[in-house]
Structures are given as structure tokens and as C-alpha cells.
Amino acid sequence: MAHHHHDHTDIDWAEMADHLESQAELFTPLYERVLGWLAKEVTEPGLVVDAGSGPGVISCLFADTFPGARIVAVDGSEPLLERARARAADRGVADRFSTLTGELPAVLDDLEYPADLLWASRSVHHLGDQQAALTALASRLAPGGTLAVMEGGLPTRFLPRDIGFGRPGLQARLDVLQEEWFTQMRADLPGSVATTEHWPALLTAAGLHHTRTRSFLLDLPAPAPDRARAYALDMLTRARETFADHLAPDDRATLDRLLDPDDKSSLHHRPDLFLLTAHTVHTAVRPV
């Protein structure tokens, strides 16, 4: 969930490269289950497009899942795509891996071929008119091709409701601030259109059919691995920066303790830190 950052629309994705990469690596077990599900839906695609690929972690998983496919990672950030190409080379899939730099959805007009599988992981919500964006994505599918959109799910939990100090329910209160931030981020996007986020209906309105929806869990029980601890620290640090002016003083004090490496009750040391979240994927098919 790469949302806690900067002013609403000028997210510096390249600056977030390390965060995006380590988060995607942490979430790889979830993505592998998603791709296993997609592989039952989409057999032997010739071209897979990752729209809003970032540093290419999922793009490379697509290369593993579909050994016969060409993969195109598409993103507005050339530094992130540089990382994607390096990752593809490291994994030995560079010969069928390419990148395309530019803003979604217009840049997809530069694809040489229509896609058999077009994947958009939490990229559509960064586009002002989500319905128009999905319609544009759908138009880049081959007949019988599948559009898979990862949007929605559940907020991440990594602490018990009562952590032994401060008011219980800190993460739920941060969720409320996050929702308000996200709503404002959407409102500030160029050409922003308020949309009822019923993704199957939006996919149908984009001219697709056979909609399916499934959610996937990432469940790392306590004591969570170091990578999950680093992710939780990153998330709370961003929340502290982003929501500083909106936090109740007691919650701000609680966050400061949770982030203080010298405090034995901080995220750095807690044995009860876990990671639990769900991501939802919606698919639909272009009529033949």
C-alpha cells in the first residue's frame, strides 16, 4: 500500500523505490497465490502487460509464472523501470522482458500488440477518471484477453488492539486518517471523477464480461520476520509524517514510543508484531 507519502498528487515514486521493492518482496507469497489463480484463468498468454509496474517485482513473477510469455512493464518512472530491467536480468528473463515509460493509460497506445493479460496493481486509483482508465485498459486487450485489477481489500494490521500503552485501537484510528487522505488524493487528481468503486460493474461498463473477484491473504503471525518489522516501521513512520497535524496528542505520543528504537515497547523490539492483510483482485475478459 504505497499511499502514505508527500502531498496528494506529487508522489515521487522513484524516491520510494526501496520501499516499493521491499514491500513487493514481502508480499510475494500473496502475489504468487494471485498469479497461480490467474494462470488457471489465462492459459499460455503471448503478451502480459504490467500497467503501473513500479520496480518490476510482480512483472518478474509473471515471467516465472508464464515461461512462454513476453512481459512488458509499464510505468511513468524511468528510474523504477531501470530497476525492473535489472531484476529481469538477474532472474534470467531479460530476453523476453521489456519496459515502456509514460503515463497511464495513454502510454499503452505504444504497445506493439494487444495484451492477452493486462495487470493493474493499485494503479487505477491514481488516475482521475477510473472508469475511463479501465475502458482504455480494456481496449488494449486481445479478443479473449483478461484485465486483472488489484484494488480494495483490507487495511494491514500488525499490532494487537491493546499494545499495553496509549489508547487501544490505534491502527483503526490511523485507518480513518488514511481514508480521508486517500479521498483527498483522489479529489486532487487531474480530471478527477467521483466513482462508485464497484469494480465488477466498472469492468462491465468498460465492455468486458465474465467478471470474477477473489481476495488473497498475507498472514505472517508473531513473531513476524525482520522484513515485516521493517515494513511496519516504514508504515508507521510515514503515518507519523503524513498525519502529524491530525493525530490526537496521545496517539502522537504512542507513535513516538512505537518508533523509538531505545524503547523496549517499540516496533523494533516487540515480540507480538505480526502482519495480516488482504488484497482483492477483479478480473474480466474482452469478448472474442
TrEMBL record:
Species assigned in the record: Streptomyces composti
Domain Methyltransferase per the UniProt entry, residue ranges: 48-145
Protein name, per record: Class I SAM-dependent methyltransferase
GO MF annotations in UniProt: methyltransferase activity
Keywords for this protein: Methyltransferase, Transferase
GO biological process: methylation
